[in-house]
Amino acid sequence: MDFIKTVALPRYAEYNCTFRYILEKGLDVKYLLQPPLTQHTLEIGAKYSPDFVCTPFKTTLGSMIEALEAGADTLIMIFGLCKLGYYGELQEQILRDLGYKFDCINFSDFDTGRKKDYIRGLKRINPKMSFAKFAVAGMEAIKMGDYLDEITGEYYKNYGFAQDRKAYQHAYKAFLRDMYAAGSKSDIEEGYRRAKDAMSRIPLDKPLKPLRVGVIGEFYTAMDAFSNLETEQKLADMGVEVHRWMTATNRVIHYPGETNLNVKIQEYCRYEMGPTSTANIWSAKTYAEKGFDGIVHIKSANCTPEIDIMPVLQNIGNDYKIPILYLTFDAQTSDVGLMTRLEAFYDMIAMRKKVIV
Amino acid sequence: MEQITVGIPRGLLYFRYRTVWKTLFKELGFKVIVSEPTTQETADIGSALTVDEGCLAQKLFFGHVSSLVGRCDYIFIPRIRNYGKSRELCVRFMALYDMAVNMFRGSGQKFLTYSVDEWKSVSEKESVLELAKTLDLPTKRVKAAYKTAVKADEERQKELLQKQSERLKRNGLKILIAAHSYVIEDNFVGKPITEYLKKSGAVPIRADVVDRDSAFKKSLELSSTCKWTVNQEIMSGILSYEDRVDGIILLSTFPCGQDAMVNELILRRVGDMPMLNLVVDGQSGTAGLETRLESFLDIIRFKKGAL
Ligand code: SF4
Ligand code: SF4
Q: Which of B15, B150, B21, B37 is nearest to B74 (CA)?
């Protein structure tokens, strides 16, 4: 029998269910899901990383170590804009220097802008891959990603108002489990419908004008609940309707493109200032225009592009008189400290709402 | 007609492009002023203006911008994104212009800019022409000015390489400094370090002074996916000069994540060479680094049997 690879990628929010689907259904390899991110993951990652690199580098390095410890023999490094495109080569070097033996498929090696090179990358995962099969699984995985972002969005908007919060959370968790287990398109569809049903059956006590907060920020940390110490859940717990446009599917698959978005924010910036900058500035402005009560900007320590949009966000905050809470996360960020800041922010926006209404 | 004054901040890409920019604007009939060399005050003003978390090089840059506000018709801040796929600059250079406009929007100061994004087929030449259009300058004249500017820059680069090979022939310990031009040449950051080396009888060599055309290809020997042009040049410099130097100083500003990554790789891959990783921050500048430099030189001398 042929040797079947056991492939892993770092943990990234809940998107690993889509990675799993593509790899197993589209490329016929075995996918290994390492344990969820914990403080320990981040600590081992940070221990072997250069100090000043942005935090997702450290988190994903830790997650790769946990994957290798759990038995993965192949690691996939993804490519991307900004420093992300250089994560892979350095992480591989660090892991090799630590003595790990594994096959490394680094998509930055194939990131030339030419389609045939990306296909070469896929063939590295499985030389016998069928492109047709991959395309079908890819489309289905994208659908899964869309559902995931939709249900997650709904969850954080409504959790704080559910009459039975426990049941609401239970329905969301069950949906995640379904997506991680899905083996076919119909599994995905059924899981989605089940979640929709279950969540809509739980009555909400939502005031006419609830407190609404828009979350914006960096690609990894704003989406990954572990990395932002569950900021969204904490806000939802306080009874806030939490919105976030910045999701993997919105930014990567359905992105309206920098020029489209840029037209809408031209009074603030002339250029695309960074990989997620346009979308975040546009989101912030949209939340402000829609009368949201506050904005939370989430980034990892040392995230260059998100640091650089802060002067723009400050101007939006001043122009629309909307409070913006700036949060930076690294291995040392304490849960208690975060809670204190979120509570103070909540008190402030709740107070303003009373005065304004 | 009153002559238009263009102010150029003496920070970041100024050190790479000064000849191009100064020649270009002078040829176009502008008066060019450049902010004064960096001092502790520049660092303090820049730090007060910017978010704490930015890199020192950026803080210094905005210190320079601030010193030009109100002193010129335009402050020139281009946006340079890449010279093609895998030939990028730090993402920070995408943002500088818009940052400045947002930071100083109440001041009435006007800014000039152009954007280079060759991956999307926008070259430096085209963007210069675009800029000139907004100033109502005749295309023909701009083309000629740009040509002169490019020529002058080629001369300057030749001269830099010439000086480098002279330095390589000198006696004394040769120390290769791997740093961005705005780090090594800055009065507050790199200067004190090169001065110290000279005073101690060592010869500083610059890793970023290389033949730029062949740098990318050469750098692949050290790192196959590094997409930052300047870091590619520095890596190709390390490969070209490592046989002729006695030690390497990796010099960056606090807290530059990009250099941190590349330097980590260099430390892990360049074998058998004394290396010192120096990070300069805005509060202490280079004070306190002297002891580290001194012991680094001692180690090298000891290794060479000269102590
Ligand atoms: S966007 Fe921020 S976190 Fe992501 S690679 Fe760039 S600097 Fe790092
Ligand atoms: S490369 Fe580093 S020092 Fe240079 S601008 Fe970017 S973050 Fe700052």
A: B21
**Ligand 1 atom closest to A304 (CA):** 7
- B164: closest CA of chain A, how far (Å): 30
Angle, alpha carbons B25-B29-B33 (nearest 5°): 55
Long-range contacts of range B193-199, CB-CB < 8 Å, 24 or more positions apart?
B193/B249, B193/B251, B193/B278, B193/B286, B193/B289, B193/B293, B196/B286, B196/B290, B196/B293, B197/B293, B197/B297
Element (H, E) at B279: strand B275-280
Judge whether B223 and B235 are in contact, CB under 8 Å. Answer: yes
3-state SS track over A111-153: CCCCHHHHHHHHHHHCCCCCHHHHHHHHHHHHHHHHHHHHHHH
- Taking each helix axis as running N to C, give the angle between helix B124-134 and helix B139-169, from 0 to 180 degrees, rounded to the nearest 10: 130
Which pLDDT does position B305 carry in this prediction?
82
ipTM value: 0.96
Segment A181-208 shows an average pLDDT of 98
Q: Do the chains contact at B257 and A53, CB–CB below 8 Å?
A: yes
How far, in Å, is the centroid of ligand 2 from the Cα of B173? 29
Name beta bridge partners: A104: A75
Count how many Cα atoms sit within 13 Å of the Cα of residue B132 in the half-sphere of its side chain: 22
Ligand 1, atom nearest to A54 Cα: 8
**Total count of residues recorded for chain B:** 307
C-beta separation of B219 from B239 below 8 A: yes
Q: A285-316 b/e with 16+ CB inside 10 Å = b?
A: bbbbeeebbbbbbbbbbbbbbbbbbbbbbebb
Ligand 1 atom at shortest distance from the alpha carbon of A53? 8
Provide the token pair at B49: 């203006």
The rounded distance, in Å, linking the Cα atoms of B32 and A76 is: 51
Residues 6+ apart with CB under 8 A from A238: A160, A342, A343, A346
Cβ of A106 and B225 within 8 Å? yes
Pairing of strands B79-82, B110-112: unpaired
Calpha distance A265→A283 (Å, rounded): 10
Distance B6 CA to ligand 1 centre (A): 34
Chain A residues with CB-CB distance to B91 below 8 A: 81-82, 274-275, 304-305, 308
AA letter at A303: C
Dihedral sign for Cα atoms in the order A100, A103, A109, A115: negative
**Å between A274 CA and nearest CA of chain B:** 6
Q: What is the pLDDT of residue B307?
A: 60
Q: Which of A47, A48, A53 to mutate to test the interface with B (most CBs of B within 10 A)?
A: A53
Whether B53 sits inside 8 A of A273 (CB atoms) is no
Residues of B with CB under 8 A from a CB of A: 51, 53-54, 79, 85-86, 90-92, 94-95, 97-99, 101-103, 105, 113, 115, 119, 223-228, 254-258, 260-265, 268-269, 279
- A252 Cβ contact list (under 8 Å, min separation 6): none
pLDDT digits (tens, 9 = 90+) for A27-50: 999 999 999 999 999 999 999 999
Strands A74-77 and A6-8: parallel
Could you read off the pLDDT of A54-98 as tens digits, one per residue? 999 999 999 999 999 999 999 999 888 999 999 999 999 999 999
**Which chain A residues contact residue B78 at CB under 8 A?**
none
Instruction: Please list every residue in chain A whose beta carbon sits closer than 8 Å to the beta carbon of residue B115.
Output: 271
Question: Region A158-164: what's the mean pLDDT?
Answer: 98
A108 vs B contacts (CB less than 8 Å): 225, 227
